[in-house]
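[Q] Does anyone have a clean structure-token version of this?
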Amino acid sequence: MGLPMRRELPAGLPPAPAAVVLDDGTAAVGRYQGRVDRIDWSGLHEARRHSGPWRWAHHKRWQYVGIASPELFIGVAVVDLGWCITAFAYVFHRLRQRIVTDWSQDGLPWLSGRVTDAPVDGVDTAFRGPGAAITLRHQAGDTLALRVRAANLNLRADLDLASTPPMLLAVGPVAGGLMHATQKSTAIAVRGEAEVDGLRWDLGAAHACLDSSNGLLARDTAWRWASAHRPGLGFNLQQGYFGDMENVLWLDGEPIALGAADFQFDAQQPLAPWTVRTACGLLDLRFEPQGARCADRNLGVAASRYIQPVGVFSGEVRRARQGPGLRVDGLLGVTEDHRSVW
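[A] Here you go.
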């Protein structure tokens, strides 16, 4: 199943290339609007200078879906580390201001599942383990079908890609590794429901964001991240291994490239307020955490320290540096402070 017919894109970022590696074997470095069928590094000349075992050990892929509704925030991910595959799913209850379910599990690559190089052309991302299953499947009508059965959570969510604004595609080099590509979305309409311990929530008023990432990364990789979306307004920010490549603001469906992001917060008190700004002056926000998912793991050969607060953003964004500001209030989203040795 190929991509749907390309819609007319708004002015600004150039349209996405056909592939992340060009015919001459170099990467299509840049920020674009739109999507690619596959994120495939097999033709990258620079990668061929490294051994097969090096490429296998440094190749990381993940699919993340965040779903924001009036009642809940839901985060689901499947991560392929090459030597291991891991998955998590959690539900944050906004009224109770706490996580009501938090599941994670590790498995063997291919035996337990996989993250596809073709996130939107009909190939599944999946995870299977004792008492748990996650699938993310592209269906007819340009819909992504997310299904989760894990612990006390059952989730059915259909993401309508056909009507969502253009995605950001970012392709670029990374320190200590070779190359990385990511596709980010804003405010995807959702149909479905979530059930936790027999309580059900309709997701008809929810909106989702999608992160499809794939790269040859450094063994020691760290980042800070922020993401929040609603119809007509959304943003994705990262400070760390990928520089400003994936920093983008969506206003009325138009993706606008942002400069370097600066995160100010107390790592010892991550539930205290954060501030997030961009050097270009187009985004200046305060984040008020309401709860968080966190994990601190050390397996000897690999380790991960991770916290993802859930909360609301307020402040101001603008389309141009000298243009009028747009007030932001109560925008539900997440921040993250993450370091992995993988």
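[Q] Thanks! Anything notable?
[A] The chain has one domain: 30-40+58-341.
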